[in-house]
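Re: beginner question about structure tokens

> Can someone show what the tokenized structure looks like for a real chain? I only ever see the sequence side.

Sure, here's an example I had lying around. Input first:
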Amino acid sequence: MFDSPGPHLFGLPPGVDFPAALVAGLRARLADAPPEAMARVELYVNTQRMRRRITELMTAEGAGFLPRIRLVTELPPVPGLPAPVPALRRRLELAQLVARLIEAQPDLAPRSALFDLADSLAELIDEMQGEGVAPEAISRLDVADHSAHWQRTQAFMSIVAPMFGSDAPDAQALARMTVERLAARWHEAPPRHPVIVAGSTGSRGTTALFMQAVARLPQGALVLPGFDFDLPAAVWAGLDDALTAEDHPQFRFHRLLGMLDATPSDVRRWSSDAAPSPGRNRLISLSLRPAPVTDQWLTEGKLLPDLSGAAEAMTLIEAPGPRAEALAVALILRRAAEEGRRAALITSDRELTRQVAAALDRWGIVPDDSAGRPLALSAPGRLLRHVARLFGRRLTGEALLTLLKHPLTATGSDRGNHLRWTRDLELQLRRRGPPFPTGADLAAWAAGRPADGVADWAAWLGQLIEGLEAVRIRPLAEHVAAHLALTEALAAGPSRVGTGELWLKEAGEAALAAVTDLRREAPHGGELTPADYTDLFDAILARGEVREAVQAHPGLMIWGTLEARVQGAELVILGGLNDGTWPQLPPPDPWLNRQMRLKAGLLLPERRIGLAAHDYQQAVGAPEVVLTRAVRNAEAETVPSRWLNRLTNLMSGLPAQGGPQALAAMRRRGQEWLALAQALEAPGEAVPLARRPAPRPPVEVRPRQLAVTGIRTLIRDPYAIYARHILRLRPLDPLHRAPDARLRGSILHRILEDFVKGRPEATDRAAERARLMTIAGTVLADEVPWPAARALWLARLDRAADFFLEAEAAQGGSPVVLEEEGRAELAALGFTLTAKPDRIDVLPDGRLHILDYKTGTPPTKKQQEQFDKQLLLEAAMAERGAFRGLEVAEVARISYIGLGSSPKIEAVETDAALLGQVWEGLHALVGRYMVRSQGYASRRAMFGERFPGDYDHLARFGEWEMSDPPEPETVGAEGQAAGTGPDEETPAARRPLAQPAPEEAE
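And the corresponding structure tokens:
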């Protein structure tokens, strides 16, 4: 194939369909050779997608021989080399070393960073082996002028030096050893058939070494992708300094040519294929000049032709947000599909690709996504991660239901009943708890239900969750065995047969491969805490991907940035062009800083940026290009990608070449797509805002019984009474139970009730205080399962104890009613008022004193007069004999005792006139709501706008303001309950008017 001596160096300019041009060049060079000559060609490419594309192109032309196509990582076998150490085993060994380092030097990093540090150390070792850098190179570095951290790193690297031994090499070390022996063998006996490396930049040391060996073969050749033939020789010469040039897209070619003692002029064109837009390539090349020579914009920019032609097939979309960007990209891809054009979205932003795929799904379009789906986000991955978090901690109701509702749980049993019982258990946990359910709690719950199999289900579940909290440090192999056993048992369900659908389909197979690898290497992992094991397992799953078989659209692709070299698309969309996304920021290196890397001969962090720049230069040369970015993300404004910034600045500074006009045209085309995206999201017709509701239901369905606390709600938020007592809608208790103010209040009431009930006749203050705190400790231990909340609440009560005891001594009364319900009838209205006072005392003069305890700030006298009438109503009820066992007596005063952070007492002296006025006001209030014309207005007199109500979402608060007048609306027909037909009768309608529904009683 090649007659001249090597090295044989070829290239293709950016924008050329690289696989197609590569195949065309091969066929042209073998046109006069027999057909079997193609089969003797050994072709190495950089990606699996490149290999598939070359195969498709060659088979599309009919029957014939194919070259032997391999990846650059699939090197020919060399006898005599040891087997490589599995990557996971090496990481587990390194994790143990890092763990001991953290234990010895806790200021190095938190324990949670253990596996991140181990991974970064493994990557450093891989890089050192790939670049041929021995551990001695690190130990010889002069770090006297560096901080103590880097000196500590240097010392630690000497500990891991044994891992560089040739008897147990890593995969990267084995690859370099293979290349070195292969190069020596080829030097002695070079192959007679063509050996070609195509599509690789030689960015890694091992690959560059292999490319050198191939280039020096008599029949060897390199075909470089995206080679910039427009770059002047002076710029090539300026790429010698890695510190300033490593982020340039052509830097890797410059370094490779230097290794081969070649110059850019030695690189010839592989084929006659021209770039789709040579003018655009020149513009992009100039915009990407290294920072020290961007002054060439002034000298070379004026030599560019009119830019309107170069930018004619370019569109710039600067979307206001990620969603608008994704919709615009989806619309462009849809248009391409309609026109039968081949289009590709190239981006490193996986969030953008998921949003684009979701937007295309509305039209039933499935793009060919090369990246697949993260294994950690698949159904088996999620279940495995949920289960890993159960060990070593108390099981919450939220965590339990997350497992039970997972789509893979109980797939080996009767899943229908499983879901039914899970639903019922959720209602139990929401309404009555406990926050940390145990097997005994599940058994007790099942015992009170019908015998439909739920007892066996609860027993199966209780057996699985028992003992999880007690797990402590243990060998990794035991962690893995327990983890997989529990996960498989959950998937099997109560039948305890098989593993359900856990390991089925592509996601299940990928998850099984990952955990099998972990189980095989677990003996090398040492001992871990449950938290360490969870971090390790998350890190392992995060590396996996699932490629599911889908019927993708043949002309729409989503590619990663590396696959920009595959090309072959008429329309290319470069998405997510923001700094930090494309290019991605180099990850922080905790082991070596930039100067240490340079002196040791390792790659600089800018290498990643340079590779991304080369992918960008390749992709932006396509026949038609769309550049997209979001001006703002969910948190703040974004910064344009440095390459996009350079391009727009260069074009803006070339008015003589029509740069500003061409840039404006690019943006104008982008705005057209954004307008379409906005129109796609716009509602078909304007939806009017909701008005402030004030529903007017039939009188017969209005509540005939309320508690005194309900009267306060009726005054402040009548709509809440309508929703709760007429619509029968009750707020669903949160699944994640927390020590909130409501629980704190009920706990305080029980503590004080127990204290007052068992009070001795005469004790000193110290004994009373000790007894109060003892009761508090007992109640908190029984009712509050959160240690932090118990300690905090006990400390608060301790601060308020003296105030409470002093108030008790000053009261001078004897408790006669404690937390007992009373009832008073409003006979004329057919209405019943109920109350359950915290405490009623009889004073020495025979009068009554009603008390109520508050954990917060008690209501002021003004608030009691207008809104918070709870104690006033209880006093009026007491004077009317509403409380059983308590004789009718005059009420002397009412008192709110606040035991919060600032304890205080709000007392009101009462008399017959005041309580009579309150009772008349109650009649007037209830009577007003006994007529159809009175509506239940939402948030009528709330304490403040920032105080939420349980039914604000139902009332659509937020669409209207507190200053808006209520909008009365008649609901339901007279003589029937709202929402029923004329021949239907609801339980509320059948109920006697004076009797509440059981669930309405308070």
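Each token stands for a local structural state, so reading them left to right follows the chain. The longest strand covers residues 891-898.
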